[in-house]
Specification:
- This protein has 301 residues and is mainly beta.
- The protein is 10% helix and 48% strand.
- The protein has one domain: Porin.
- It has four helices and 15 strands.
- The strands form two sheets. The chain has a twelve-stranded antiparallel β-barrel with strand order 3-4-5-7-8-9-10-11-12-13-14-15. A two-stranded antiparallel ribbon has the order 1-2.
- The longest helix has 10 residues.
- It starts with 10 loop residues before the first helix and ends in an 11-residue tail after the last helix.
- 40% of the residues are buried.
Length: 301
């Protein structure tokens, strides 16, 4: 689930950014002059109209898991949006039949909690429900999972000019808890952080260093995600979730006017997370800008 919107944020600063930075004029979650691209491994902090698809592949102890995820988000009002998402999985393991199929469908709602343009800060509250028995037989689960979430972003554009080359930096993050309806299933705490350096911000608002296409629209990024069981010991032990698992994902996101493309490596954070480097690819289409008068506009307001 991802939510993004552009038009509702501080109109004056956004228009200024648009005039200076045409290549990313209408891209994604914005706070002041800061554009936060959609992170590939956790939610970004903006409510928006968008369609996104991600592909990941990772291998651990001979088991290869491929995942193709789809998500659609629609604003109901400028600050409130709904979403629907699912993903298709392929699992291969030595000596066992291959498995494939759809995971459960997830529906969600998100509210834009705050946007502070001068300090390039943005926050979002969201909740999602992964519906029981809504995927393929054998690949889905027979219980629902409700997940409240808080996502945020903070740009460093308000740093002193003496450290101007740090101004293109930004961080974003999200924290959520998965609460299954089946008490035998564990509750999981999930969090993600990203550190990103915006080349468009550098060239438009700090110093034009002369980079041309495609480098002038790139945002080098490192994402870090982690998931941990927070239920009772017996529940965690029975599910095999005693260890923290996650990954560090260095890569780059190219941000255009109507879409973004990202690619990241998935480096296991510890032995429990795997023993091979995986890959993560993502495409995000900004319906706010592709279809600004129909699917890309809020229904009300």
């Amino acid at each position: 689930m991802r939510h993004h919107h552009f038009g509702r944020f501080g109109a004056g600063l956004v228009v200024s950014a648009a005039l200076i930075m045409p290549a990313v004029t209408w891209a994604h979650a914005v706070a002041g002059m800061r554009v936060f691209p959609a992170t590939l491994s956790f939610d970004d902090p903006g409510v928006a109209n968008e369609f996104s698809t991600n592909y990941s592949q990772i291998k651990a102890d001979g088991v290869t898991t491929k995942n193709l995820a789809f998500a659609y988000a629609k604003t109901i009002t400028p600050k409130f949006g709904l979403s629907i998402a699912s993903d298709y999985n392929w699992i291969t393991q030595p000596g066992q039949p291959n498995q494939s199929g759809w995971d459960n469908v997830t529906i969600g709602a998100a509210y834009q909690l705050f946007v502070n343009g001068p300090h390039e800060a943005i926050g979002m509250l969201a909740v999602s429900d992964t519906l029981a028995n809504s995927g393929s037989g054998g690949m889905d689960s027979n219980f629902s999972t409700i997940s409240p979430e808080f996502a945020f972003g903070k740009g460093f554009g308000d740093l002193p000019w003496s450290v101007k080359y740090l101004r293109p930096l930004a961080i974003s993050g999200a924290i959520s808890e998965d609460m299954p309806s089946d008490s035998t299933q564990p509750k999981m705490l999930n969090w993600g952080l990203s550190l990103q350096y915006s080349i468009p911000y550098l060239q438009s608002f700090v110093k034009d260093v002369g980079l041309g296409a495609p480098f002038n629209n790139m945002v080098p990024i490192v994402e870090y995600t982690m998931s941990q069981c927070v239920d009772s010991y017996s529940v965690c032990a029975s599910s095999g979730s005693l260890d923290r698992t996650g990954s560090m994902n260095p890569g780059v996101i190219w941000v255009g006017k109507y879409y973004q493309i990202g690619v990241e490596a998935q480096i296991p954070a510890n032995r429990a997370s795997g023993n091979h480097v995986g890959i993560l690819l993502g495409i995000d289409v900004y319906l706010d800008d592709v279809l600004p008068h129909s699917l890309g506009a809020p229904i009300f307001g």
